[in-house]
Design goal:
The complex is a heterodimer of chains A (208) and B (387).
Chain A lengths: L7 H9 L5 E5 L5 H9 L3 E6 L2 H9 L3 E4 L2 H4 L8 E7 L8 H11 E9 L4 H10 L23 H10 L2 E9 L12 H7 L2 E8 L5
Parallel strand pairs in A: 1-2, 1-4, 2-3, 4-5
Antiparallel strand pairs in A: 5-7, 6-7
Chain B lengths: L2 H7 L4 E5 L5 E2 L5 E2 L2 E8 L9 E5 L25 E2 L4 E2 L4 E5 L31 H14 L5 E7 L1 H12 L4 E7 L7 H16 L16 H15 L2 H7 L19 H16 L2 H13 L20 E7 L7 H13 L3 E7 L13 H17 L8
Parallel strand pairs in B: 5-8, 5-9, 6-7, 9-10, 10-11, 11-12
Antiparallel strand pairs in B: 1-4, 2-3, 4-8
Classes of the chains: A alpha/beta (208), B alpha/beta (387).
Chain lengths: 208, 387
């Protein structure tokens, strides 16, 4: 697969990963990103995926993927066993995002998290004018059947990173077309214009 | 001498005979020589000798994986998994399966003739462990001129052998697939095995193990052992779905101890057909070997230590309704492999068929096996196997 064909958030994530490192993708789906990283970045690729179908697809690709749950199974990994722990579009579906993030920064030296930004202007206007929980193209579920139980905004995520004393190595916001909203914009602008946020976190004190 | 006893010494299989000067030193300290190993192969070993897959059979299985069984006349026990175009594809892979030592289908075991006495070993045969079985298999793999197996695959007791292979000979196992297995036999499982053994030994025809010499057959004891064990291979929902409370060929209960219920009739049939093909003493030895299995204990109490620095890629599978080797057993191994930094995949397959699911038509097991083995073959540079 060429990098053009890769989902835009995956492309950004893959830019952050150094070649030849050890990577854990939490909620790796059918293994698209992991397979790309294994092929193009020669990483030692590992995954956790909750769906059987996803795990089977990953195993068929030759990936080492465990059927499991971000909320419960990260605790099983020893400290520092990965260079990067990736969580793509999954943190909002975890029961305890804070503990998941803590675990990611315990088992990996770097954490890369992408998530839908609930502070995007379209969502704000939807709630403001309709008075109902926003349903958008990217977030098509209704409030009662959504797996996304912990939505946050880009600013919320920055606050959580601060609370965990994580260092933000790099952050990006992507617009609806998957293009970066613009580097060096203030948080409030990203929080309005970004459909999703992608954060690269490291432990305070660690130098990457 | 009946067909089964004939198979113990002179099986319908390929046979490796290790001479008296090549003894197998056992974990108990005893040594076994000469040793005989009966095995079947399917497919062709490639020139580079890189496409060999060893299948390890379960407690009551044998080497007849994918051919007609010489005693029962039935199809091989894993015919849906192994064969041309099957998940373990004999068009691409060279598949080997040997009868475990302690078994009764041609590898040295209690039913084999002791060359010193000219009689069956019976209980004079040394008690074995899973590691002993694996060391014997390693002799066979040496004999076949194979340095590193592409994969070792097995379910239940076969899975224990897979784990022992990966731990004892990490450099000889490129990929390992333990299915519905555990790194140690649980107290509950030891308990079930003890019930089975006691049933065999309580049969007066067992004759302290010397039934062959004395022309007796402990068929009742072994059949009861099999009936009890068979229940543990199923699940309550599967029994309910298959039998419920349905009566066997009758309209009403007979108010007797006849097999009124279908489930009774089914279990009796399981017991009776088992004794036709299995040796009672073998059953004692093999259940004992499983009971002794504890890979962590063999490695200073740490399961992770059993796999330290391993380069083997692992794929574990469990089944939701398997209460004999439950998912938690597989997860414990996954946990240890993660701690050891090993490459490990794990999938829990939804099935209501209990422990037996690994032997049955389970499309998800087939897909996982096919995917894992083909990926391993590709990683090892074995041609063929279009996706």
């Amino acid at each position: 697969m060429s990098s053009e064909a890769l989902r835009s958030d995956y492309r950004l994530v893959s830019e952050m990963v150094r070649p030849g490192t050890r990577v854990l993708d939490v909620g790796c789906g059918d293994g698209e990103l992991l397979a790309f990283l294994a092929q193009h970045k020669q990483v030692d690729a590992r995954g956790i995926e909750i769906s059987r179908g996803g795990v089977a697809a990953c195993v068929a690709k030759g990936l080492a993927v465990i059927q499991g749950d971000a909320d419960t199974d990260l605790a099983d990994y020893p400290d520092d066993c990965f260079d990067y722990v990736i969580l793509s579009q999954t943190i909002q579906a975890t029961r305890n995002p804070k503990i998941v993030l803590e675990q990611m920064l315990r088992i990996g030296r770097n954490a890369i998290v992408s998530f839908p930004n609930f502070g995007h202007w379209r969502i704000r206007t939807h709630l403001m004018f309709n008075g109902r929980m926003p349903v958008t193209e990217n977030l098509p579920d209704t409030w009662y059947n959504t797996p996304n139980i912990h939505f946050c905004t880009i600013r919320d995520f920055v606050a959580l990173a601060d609370e965990l004393q994580a260092r933000i190595v790099r952050a990006d916001a992507l617009d609806a077309a998957g293009k970066p909203v613009g580097v060096k914009m203030p948080w409030w602008f990203w929080n309005m214009m970004g459909e999703q946020g992608i954060f690269w976190l490291a432990r305070q004190g660690d130098r990457t | 001498m009946n067909q089964r006893h004939h198979e113990a010494d002179d099986p319908h299989s390929l046979v490796l005979r290790l001479a008296a000067d090549e003894p197998l030193v056992l974990e108990s300290g005893a040594s076994l020589a000469p040793v005989q190993i009966a095995y079947q192969t399917y497919g062709t070993l490639n020139a580079a000798r890189t496409n060999a897959i060893l299948i390890c059979h379960a407690l009551t299985g044998d080497q007849h994986v994918a051919n007609v069984h010489p005693v029962t006349g039935k199809a091989g026990w894993w015919i849906s998994m192994v064969g041309p175009g099957k998940p373990i594809d004999t068009d691409r892979f060279f598949v080997i399966c040997s009868n475990v030592i302690g078994g009764c289908m041609g590898s040295s075991g209690p039913a084999s003739t002791d060359p010193k006495t000219g009689e069956a070993f019976a209980t004079a045969f040394p008690v074995l462990t899973i590691s002993d079985m694996v060391r014997a298999q390693a002799r066979l793999i040496d004999h076949l001129g194979i340095e590193t197996l592409l994969a070792v695959v097995g379910g239940s007791m076969g899975g224990m052998q897979v784990l022992a292979w990966a731990s004892l000979f990490p450099g000889r196992v490129f990929a390992a697939m333990p299915i519905a297995s555990a790194a140690k036999h649980s107290a509950q499982n030891i308990a079930f095995h003890e019930v089975g053994r006691q049933a065999v030994m309580a049969d007066p025809e067992w004759r302290r193990g010397r039934y062959q010499q004395e022309g007796a057959r402990p068929v009742k004891g072994l059949a009861v052992a099999r009936m009890a064990a068979h229940i543990t291979y199923l699940s309550e929902p599967a029994l309910q779905r298959k039998f419920g409370r349905k009566l066997q060929d009758r309209e009403a209960p007979t108010f007797s101890f006849d097999a009124d219920f279908q489930v009774e009739s089914y279990l009796r049939h399981q017991g009776i057909s088992f004794v036709e093909r299995f040796d009672a003493n073998s059953y004692l030895y093999l259940t004992r070997a499983m009971d002794y299995f504890d890979l962590a204990a063999d490695n200073g109490g740490s399961l992770g230590a059993a796999f330290r620095n391993t380069r083997t890629r692992f794929c574990l599978v469990s089944f939701t309704s398997d209460w004999l080797f439950p998912t938690t057993d597989s997860r414990q191994i996954v946990h240890a492999l993660n701690a050891a930094g090993a490459s490990v995949s794990f999938v829990e397959i939804e099935s209501d068929k209990g422990h037996d699911a690994f032997l049955l038509e389970e499309p998800n097991l087939f897909a996982t096996t096919r995917g894992f083995l083909n990926a391993a073959a590709t990683a090892r540079g074995i041609p063929g196997g279009a996706a």
